[in-house]
Specification:
Helix content: 40-55%
Shape: globular
Radius of gyration: 18 Å
Strand order of the largest sheet: 1-4-5
Distance between the termini: 42 Å
Order of helices and strands: HHHHHHHEEEEE
Largest sheet: 3 strands, mixed
Strand content: 5-15%
Number of helices: 7
Number of strands: 5
């Protein structure tokens, strides 16, 4: 009864998007999901097909490659639910492409950063991630040790992150680090890092 009631609250557009996601999950993901999970296999083509359907653009304006939906957050929840019903693993890209990197850059990045990164995350031209967790800090984010030191026009980041979803296939993402340790949690900053284009970054699966 509850599921039926919630379904009645959805607009025709959202119901159509839900049905599209359900059909995609059953057609593209379900046939190989058990084998892929056992073998820890990631299929980039599935994520790119999801992007082609606009799945990662629900909360992103059209000018940056998104759909600019009025009910974008609800649409994202509805679509994610249908994908995750078949494979929780392929529910993750909604965070790795849209909700964490793209949406954060949309809210806090400058215009150059928005134009450079958001369309590539929405289209899955680049795979994204966000790196917060460290070997000695999980839910206590403020205890992280990674720090960033200003060096002229740049910052040099030093530290280690672990259990980061999307690694080692991620092309770019947000790396959180201290720029002012004395300010405690208020001294944390997020850096956009091109993980495969700069020196000094090592990504390994665990």
């Amino acid at each position: 009864m509850e599921l039926h009631f919630m379904s009645e609250l959805l607009s025709d557009e959202l119901r159509a998007m839900r049905d599209s996601a359900k059909d995609f999950a059953e057609r593209e993901i379900a046939p190989t999901v058990e084998k892929d999970e056992k073998e820890h296999r990631f299929r980039p083509e599935i994520v790119r097909k999801m992007a082609e359907l606009g799945f990662f653009g629900c909360v992103i304006p059209e000018e940056y490659g998104g759909m600019g939906l009025e009910d974008g957050f609800l649409a994202s929840c509805v679509i994610t639910e249908e994908i995750a019903r078949v494979s929780p693993s392929y529910g993750l890209p909604f965070n790795l492409q849209m909700m964490a990197p793209a949406l954060t850059i949309l809210k806090f990045g400058n215009e150059a950063q928005k134009k450079r990164y958001i369309p590539d995350f929405v289209s899955a031209k680049k795979f994204g991630c966000f790196a917060i967790t460290e070997p000695n800090s999980g839910s206590d984010v403020a205890s992280m040790r990674t720090y960033a030191k200003r060096d002229g026009d740049y910052y040099v980041l030093n530290g280690q992150k672990t259990w980061i979803s999307g690694i080692p296939v991620a092309d770019a993402g947000l790396v959180y680090a201290y720029t002012d340790k004395e300010a405690k949690h208020r001294g944390l900053s997020a850096f956009i890092v091109d993980l495969k284009e700069i020196k000094g970054v090592t990504m390994i699966p665990i």
